[in-house]
Amino acid sequence: MSAEANPHDEMIEEWDWERAQPTGRPVSRKAAHRGGIAHEGVHLWIMRTPASGPEILFQHRARTKELYPDCLDITVGGHVVYGHDDRKIQKESFEEIGIRPPDADLIDLGYYRYEEHADGLFHREFQRVYLLHDDRPLDGYVFRDGEVEGIFAVPLPTLEEIMSRDLTFEIEGFTGGRSVRRTVTRKDFHPLLFAPPMKVYMDVVFRAAHEYIETGRVAVRMPSPR
Fold first, then answer.
1. Do 90 and 102 touch, CB atoms closer than 8 A?
2. Do the domain assignments include residue 192?
């Protein structure tokens, strides 16, 4: 997300919920979330494959975030600013974790149709999801926009296990100034990762990671949003 005085009033593009296509009409982010106006989001999951086993990286959301502060969340995620038509995920990833991955390195998993009703929020989003294999050390990431406080590596088998039950485990991270280790449980992660609407989404991410590890290629895609 871009760093602005009031990022929740930024302009994004309305999408047609039934046709899964952009309409060309601008809408404020706040109005979209209040009124269930569909729009586009971009997600990037980064995986590493050290000798100890595959890992998925999670950003640590800033404690000042209006929604879901202080949670471990998707490596990169944000809304597409109105009028921004190319290299959308690179814009978000540079703002949040300081990298611009080349298009050729990104594995496009397609769009996921997501709908959420909670606490006055009516959120409809077409989420463009990417997977990236990047073995750089955690201190190779930079947190630029004040929305991300750090990055943490979660073992893939452990992540899959906590989808169905709670665990207590230790993870490695980098907070911009120092390397850290912390003990976490399921409650430290963004709660919507475990919500029923995200089950298919997470299953696709896991299958994609395993396909890449086993074959170096990924065939699985998100179900068609149409």
1. no
2. yes
* The length of the chain, given as a count of residues: 226
Q: Which residue has the tokens 């955690």?
A: 138
Q: 123-134, pLDDT tens digit by residue?
A: 999 999 999 999
Local structure of 66: helix, strand or coil: coil
226 occurs within a structural domain: no
Question: Which residues, 6 or more positions from 52, have their beta carbon under 8 angstroms from its beta carbon?
Answer: 155
pTM, two decimal places? 0.93
Nearest Cα residue to 154 out of 74, 43, 88: 74
CB-based contact 90:42 (threshold 8 Å) = no
Beta carbons of 171 and 152 less than 8 angstroms apart? yes
Tens digit of each residue's pLDDT (9 = 90 or more) over 153-169: 999 999 999 999 999 99
What does DSSP assign to residue 33?
Answer: H
Residue 180 phi, psi dihedral angles, 5° rounding: -140, 160
For residues 204 and 188, the answer to whether their CB atoms sit within 8 Å is no
DSSP 124-192: EEEEEEEEEE----GGG----SSSEEEEEEEEHHHHHHHTTS---EEEEEE-SS-EEEEEE-GGGB-GG
CATH, residue 70: 3.90.79.10
Evaluate whether residue 46 is within a structural domain.
Answer: yes
